[in-house]
Design goal:
Layout lengths: L1 E7 L6 H11 L4 E7 L4 H10 L6 E11 L2 H10 L4 E5 L14 E4 L7 H19 L8
Parallel strand pairs: 1-2, 1-4, 3-4, 3-5
Helix pairs in contact: 1-4, 3-4
C-alpha cells in the first residue's frame, strides 16, 4: 500500500513528531510527505491536484467532514485497495469545489491548527495500521 500526506504550508517544529509516525508506518506501507507552498485556496488546490493521481483515494481534512472513531477509520482504510492520500489544507482551508468527489474527513468538531492536524492524521493513520494488523498499540 502507498500513503501520501500533502500538507499546505511551511514545516513546523511539531512535524518532527509526524516524521516519527511516518517512520513507524513504513513497516506497513510506502509513505511520502509533500509540502505545498501557501497561496490562495484556488492556487493551493491546483498544486495539490498535480500531486494526486486518478487512481488515488483522497481524504481531505475538513472540520465539516465525516467523523470516524479509530476502528471505523481502520476498517475504511482496510477496505480501500488504492493508494491513500491525506490532504491538510492551508490557513484559509481547502477549495472544496476542487475536491468535491473526495472523502472529507473531520478529526474533530474543533478547528485545529494545521500543525496539530498534521500530527493527528499521521498518528491516526499509524493507529489504523496497528489495528488492522492486530498490534497492541491501540488500547480500548
Amino acid at each position: 500500500m502507498q500513503v501520501k500526506f500533502i500538507f499546505v504550508g511551511k514545516k513546523f517544529e511539531i512535524d518532527k513528531f509526524c516524521l516519527e509516525y511516518i517512520k513507524r508506518m513504513r513497516v506497513f506501507c510506502d509513505v511520502e510527505t509533500i509540502y505545498i507552498k501557501p497561496s490562495t485556496p484556488k492556487t493551493e488546490a491546483l498544486a495539490i491536484q498535480k500531486k494526486i493521481k486518478p487512481e488515488d483515494f483522497v481524504f481531505v481534512l475538513d472540520e465539516n467532514g465525516k467523523q470516524l472513531n479509530s476502528f471505523e477509520f481502520a476498517k475504511l482504510i482496510e477496505t480501500i485497495n488504492k493508494p491513500l492520500v491525506f490532504v491538510v489544507g492551508g490557513a484559509f482551508g481547502i477549495e472544496k469545489e476542487a475536491f468535491k468527489t473526495n472523502f472529507f474527513l473531520s478529526l474533530s468538531k474543533l478547528t485545529l491548527p494545521h500543525a496539530i492536524a498534521r500530527l493527528a492524521i499521521c498518528e491516526s493513520v499509524y493507529r489504523s495500521f496497528t489495528i488492522i494488523n492486530h498490534l497492541p498499540y491501540h488500547k480500548e
